[in-house]
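TA notes, week 10

Several of you asked for a full example with nothing omitted. So below is the full record: structure tokens for the whole chain, then the designed sequence directly under it. When grading your own attempts, check the secondary structure regions first.
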């Protein structure tokens, strides 16, 4: 073994040891989490790896960032084979991969993606140093710049290494398959640099090797560890619907939720190491934008640090403060996010939906809420609401018999589904039943249903709050009580499908309730859309308004219902203009996750609902903000008054517009 080979061997060994040492430390930290099933739904998991892991579907939601990332990613995929070839050539001069006729196309791909990778790196450097998007300007920015420079050195040295080889032997088989390297070779030769080709080849070999294996040794210690962990993260992502919360395990019933790193599952901890620190989660977070302490990206970064702090300890939880720094690091409320930040979350799902590596920030927040609720550490407003729900079955401190008060204005008596069969069971929901601002809308909904021939009934006073937000404030036992009561009431009724006007109710009925009769759960816009599409529902006039539409979080991001409400609006003849943040980027009204029951958020500068109505009012010619959720109606009606927009923007539920067109 000559000196060059000895140096090469040393570089490989040092790089490999540092790489493996870090990976093993991370794995030890991840294994501190509780067990979780990962081998079910293998088909779905493999599909996720292909769609979101390899082809990275979500990356392209933001085009410039998506393309620059794709260029770099595919450069590394193709150059993996070149690494094998170049390293082996260091021991066996002239070595090529034994791929026969496939070598040429492989070389072509390598050359082209290396060039695209350089373009991607330059785009990345521009973003990091010139345009500087706010979400990227955190403590990881300097490391990201260094990493981009390493990647640039790897790609440039690769092309120049091959260019030097082509200069020395233009008849070499690789020359015709390497257009970019060939162009560089021609340029260097034309400039009179052909004589330095042997030295250039040797220099670029070592620049490539040193850059590459320094990168390999260093990146697991940075946020670029996602290169390793993201693909596993995508595979292990829970396959259940977005709107389905995991129940509390029976063994944790006495102490639900999470207060330490070890209370989270190992897949939850894996999320933290897959985080790319791209900031898309925080950028789309309404709590963060309103001024609250919630920061989904930093939640993940701090969780990663907390998990690493436990990596050298035993699996036994610390028993006293004598455990020092590890005990502090393990306490999620000390090391990851404060209780105020956790309560500020609106469970809008924007952080999860926007994450390119399928991290679930919300699952950590909800587990921490369960722990806070179990401790009794919740505000007076929320405590009073939970007491009302336990006592009356609703969040308005009203007797059950008052639930159908709205029906007096609905015209004909509303059918009692407990006594008469109906095609559709209408689960009305608390806000639609009790909130004085919504009761007129509920009566109109009943009138529209009757006019268009929908055979419906309700549970009357047997209906209790469906429990969606109860569960998401951490009160699992009360949720189960509400769910079981409603399930028993529905079991005694004869109906085909369930319909609701409340997306929160829609989500929990669809994803977290037993489906006794196998029927569908529909939002009222889906039911109306079906009738329009089948020709059973026609309108007598076209409405002249220019409107915009707000996608409710629990209808859109959680359950992918985007088109039905829009088709209904278009069928009314309305001029529909989209807000900048629409569909999956829709900005939360601020009511979700029980926030509508809580006090103001500490540090809140402007309520999300006010920001949203200002966004709607900024659209040229738009005079109506159409909604499809009772909570949206309440939040935006108040926000319009607070923002002084009453004369320029109306808040109207889609059912009002349908009634007018009839």
């Amino acid at each position: 073994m000559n000196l060059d080979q000895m140096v090469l061997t040393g570089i490989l060994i040092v790089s490999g040891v540092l790489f493996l040492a870090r990976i093993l430390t991370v794995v030890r930290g991840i294994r501190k989490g509780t067990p979780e099933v990962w081998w079910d739904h293998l088909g779905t998991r493999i599909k996720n790896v292909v769609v979101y892991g390899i082809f990275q579907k979500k990356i392209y939601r933001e085009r410039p960032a998506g393309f620059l990332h794709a260029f770099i990613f595919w450069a590394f995929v193709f150059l993996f084979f070149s690494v094998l070839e170049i390293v082996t050539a260091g021991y066996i001069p002239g070595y090529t991969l034994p791929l026969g006729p496939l070598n040429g196309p492989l070389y072509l791909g390598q050359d082209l993606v290396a060039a695209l990778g350089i373009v991607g790196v330059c785009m990345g450097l521009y973003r990091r140093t010139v345009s500087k998007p706010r979400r990227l300007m955190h403590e990881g920015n300097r490391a990201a710049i260094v990493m981009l420079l390493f990647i640039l050195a790897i790609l440039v040295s690769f092309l120049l290494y091959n260019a030097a080889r082509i200069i020395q032997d233009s008849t070499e088989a690789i020359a015709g398959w390497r257009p970019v390297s060939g162009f560089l070779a021609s340029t260097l030769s034309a400039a009179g640099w052909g004589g330095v080709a042997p030295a250039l080849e040797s220099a670029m070999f070592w620049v490539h090797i040193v850059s590459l294996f320094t990168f390999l040794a260093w990146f697991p210690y940075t946020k670029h560890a996602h290169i390793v962990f993201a693909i596993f993260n995508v595979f292990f992502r829970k396959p259940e619907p977005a709107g389905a919360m995991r129940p509390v395990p029976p063994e944790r019933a006495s102490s639900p939720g999470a207060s330490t790193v070890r209370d989270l599952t190992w897949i939850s901890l894996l999320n933290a190491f897959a985080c790319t620190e791209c900031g898309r989660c925080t950028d789309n977070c309404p709590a963060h934008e309103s001024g609250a302490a919630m920061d989904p990206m930093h939640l993940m970064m701090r969780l990663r640090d907390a998990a690493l702090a436990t990596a050298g300890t035993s699996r036994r939880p610390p028993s006293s403060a004598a455990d020092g720094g590890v005990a502090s690091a393990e306490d999620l409320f000390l090391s990851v996010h404060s209780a105020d930040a956790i309560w500020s979350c609106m469970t809008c799902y924007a952080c999860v939906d926007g994450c390119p590596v399928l991290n679930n920030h919300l699952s950590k927040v909800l587990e921490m809420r369960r722990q806070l609720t179990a401790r009794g550490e919740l505000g007076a407003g929320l405590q009073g609401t939970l007491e009302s729900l336990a006592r009356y079955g609703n969040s308005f401190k009203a007797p059950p018999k008052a639930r159908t008060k709205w029906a007096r204005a609905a015209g004909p008596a509303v059918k009692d589904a407990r006594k008469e069969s109906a095609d559709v069971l209408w689960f009305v929901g608390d806000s639609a039943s009790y909130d004085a601002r919504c009761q007129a809308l509920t009566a109109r909904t009943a009138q529209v249903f009757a006019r268009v021939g929908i055979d419906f009934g309700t549970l009357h006073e047997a209906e209790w709050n469906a429990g969606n937000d109860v569960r998401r404030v951490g009160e699992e036992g009360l949720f189960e009580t509400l769910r079981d009561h409603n399930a028993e009431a529905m079991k005694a009724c004869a109906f085909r499908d369930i319909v609701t006007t409340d997306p929160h109710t829609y989500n929990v009925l669809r994803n977290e309730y037993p489906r006794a009769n196998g029927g569908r759960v529909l939002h009222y816009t889906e039911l109306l859309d079906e009738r329009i599409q089948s020709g059973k529902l026609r309108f007598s006039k076209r409405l002249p308004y220019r409107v915009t539409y707000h996608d409710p979080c629990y209808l859109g991001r959680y359950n992918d219902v985007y088109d039905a409400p829009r088709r209904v609006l278009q069928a009314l003849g309305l001029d529909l203009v989209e807000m900048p943040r629409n569909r999956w980027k829709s900005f939360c009204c601020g009511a979700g996750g029980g926030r509508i029951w809580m006090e103001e958020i500490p540090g809140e500068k402007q309520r999300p609902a006010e920001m949203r109505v200002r966004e709607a009012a900024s659209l040229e010619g738009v005079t109506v903000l159409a909604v499809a959720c009772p909570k949206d109606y309440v939040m935006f009606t108040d926000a319009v008054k607070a923002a002084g927009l009453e004369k320029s923007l109306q808040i109207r539920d889609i059912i009002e517009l349908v009634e007018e067109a009839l």
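The longest strand covers residues 497-500. Use that as a sanity check on your answer.
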